[in-house]
Design goal:
Helix content: 10-25%
Number of strands: 6
Radius of gyration: 16 Å
Order of helices and strands: EHEEEEEH
Shape: elongated
Largest sheet: 6 strands, antiparallel
Oligomer: single chain
């Protein structure tokens, strides 16, 4: 897999837990989303076009071990397949106190869309540059 293009640390919160006492499975997707949104925010000039937005057309998560609070996790984003209008991101989730032990892996396929035509549109160049510079 390619090198890390972005990473962020996220604190585990009491509200992330379920009745069993571990982080609920839906929260893993929120961790991935948080990292993805932060990554996109690193290129503010690419978000200046109000007629272009991103949708997620596929996402998945493989749960490798349970998470319990307190603590924090690191989400690492790696670039996957890059198309004309889409980019797949791969995610690695680890505890900050055990960075070599994967807790979960996942991915999301992002597609850029023209709000006027509702059709896919090319990935803005600043995002392509960000991915190709860091891979």
């Amino acid at each position: 897999m390619n090198s890390t293009i972005y990473q962020t640390d996220i604190a585990l919160r009491w509200g992330d837990m379920d009745a069993i006492g571990h982080v609920n499975n839906t929260v893993y997707f929120r961790f991935f989303e948080q990292a993805r949104v932060e990554w996109m925010a690193t290129v503010p000039e690419a978000r200046l076009d109000p007629d272009v937005y991103v949708v997620i057309v596929h996402t998945e998560c493989t749960f490798l071990s349970e998470l319990k609070a307190p603590g924090a996790v690191t989400v690492r984003i790696k670039a996957g397949a890059i198309g004309r209008t889409s980019l797949t991101q791969h995610y690695e989730l680890v505890r900050t106190d055990a960075p070599d032990a994967l807790v979960a892996t996942g991915s999301a396929k992002m597609v850029w869309v023209d709000s006027r035509t509702k059709k896919s549109t090319p990935i803005p160049l600043p995002y392509l540059d960000l991915v190709t510079v860091n891979t």
